[in-house]
Design a protein that fits this description.
By secondary structure, the chain is an alpha/beta fold. The protein has one domain: Metallo-dependent phosphatases (Purple Acid Phosphatase, chain A, domain 2, 4-Layer Sandwich), CATH 3.60.21. The protein contains five helices and nine strands. The strands form two sheets. A five-stranded mixed sheet has the order 4-3-2-1-9. Strands 5-6-7-8 form a four-stranded mixed sheet, covered by helices on one side.
């Protein structure tokens, strides 16, 4: 049976971020994310990437995405500019600005707390330094850096909100 996962901020090929935030080279980070992804995801699973697949590497984005198992849907991030979105679209992968999924609002950047009234919570990425404890309970950060560079099972996110 297929499963649903969320992740964000893969930043494939981003030398500075990998060095300063992840304490590894971009190639090492890329390999780790791809390895962990493909150990976790099957070809029938759905994975929502909540933004920032690469930074400036838009001509090679297809090379990265082709290596990942599963059915991918992307919510654009602040580094996913027009060229990036065009390359994603050429891969046949849907890309959107925001997603509502089973009562959750899914965005790249956390939304304003006043916007959460209609939702169970906000599944998001974008924040690299802050951890989950910094945000109120209505937020869940799926940035790959906080989840062992592995997509997060939606059922585990639901458990966080129902504890």
């Amino acid at each position: 049976m297929s499963k649903v996962f969320f992740t964000s901020d893969l930043h494939f090929g981003h030398q500075n971020l990998c060095k300063c935030v992840r304490n590894m080279g971009a190639e090492e980070s890329d390999e780790l994310i791809i390895k962990n992804w493909n150990k976790t995801i099957t070809k029938n699973d759905k994975v929502y990437i909540l933004g920032d697949i690469t930074v400036g590497n838009h001509k090679t984005i297809a090379d990265y995405l082709k290596q990942l198992k599963g059915n991918i849907v992307i919510v654009g991030g602040n580094h996913d500019n027009l060229k990036c979105c065009q390359e994603i679209t050429k891969c046949g992968i849907p890309i959107m600005g925001v997603l509502e999924y089973k009562g959750f609002i899914c965005t790249h950047i956390p939304i304003h707390p006043m916007e959460l009234e209609r939702y169970i919570g906000n599944i998001h990425g974008h924040l690299h330094i802050a951890n989950q404890e910094v945000l109120p309970e209505q937020y869940y950060n799926v940035n790959t850096e906080f989840h062992n560079y592995t997509p997060v099972l939606f059922e585990d996110i639901v458990k966080y909100f129902t504890k």
